[in-house]
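Readers outside the structure-tokenisation community will struggle with the description of the input data as it stands. Showing the layout once, in full, would remove most of the difficulty. For illustration, here is how one protein appears when written out as sequence plus structure tokens:
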Amino acid sequence: QVDDAPLVVYLSGLQPAVDDAIAATDPQRVVDAAEAADLLEADPHFWLDPLRLAAVGDQVAAALGQADPERAADFDDGAQRLRDTLEGIDADYAAELARCEGATLVSNHESYGYLADRYGLEQVGIAGIDPEAEPSPARVREIGQVIAAHNVGTVFYDEPTTAHFVKALAEEFDVNAVHLDPLEMQLDAEQDFVDVMRTNLVTLTQGLNCDG
């Protein structure tokens, strides 16, 4: 199917089997979201930076237009609507998080690097890039030092399966534990990408120490 597809959109480096399938076949057109979003590190969560996601949308629309020239204008219009929406989200994030610049975002999973970079936050991962990993006792002590040094009042967790050790850590250091959605999956069928991004913004502005 990959070999016969008029367009393949994928994120290189995320799933080795997909990378191997692309390398072993000859699809007519390929959009690698890692290149389109200008990924700079192992963190794949570029979609948490609205402007990186908009760039991917532009490239996908252009490739779709090449695959189906009669509908190229429709694809371009769709990409522009997407960009307008994402630029609106970006403007809201920039405005709301301006007073949080330099705040420390402590989360169990290092999935917020692009978001932190875009809006002037400092990400500290409790257990690194692996969302299922639990921290060593030494790392827990280091996180406690970060919490104390940067006046952190909230630690964030992404999936329900990781909540237990984050809540235990939060209790140990007398801070709050709050869910922040990295949008790796649709946890709530009633909320789409835009809804979750706006919910995340409220969560961040309430949870970060933006006034001190």
About this structure: DSSP finds eight helices and six strands in the chain. The longest strand covers residues 104-107. Residues 165 and 193 are 27 Å apart (CA to CA). The radius of gyration is 19 Å.
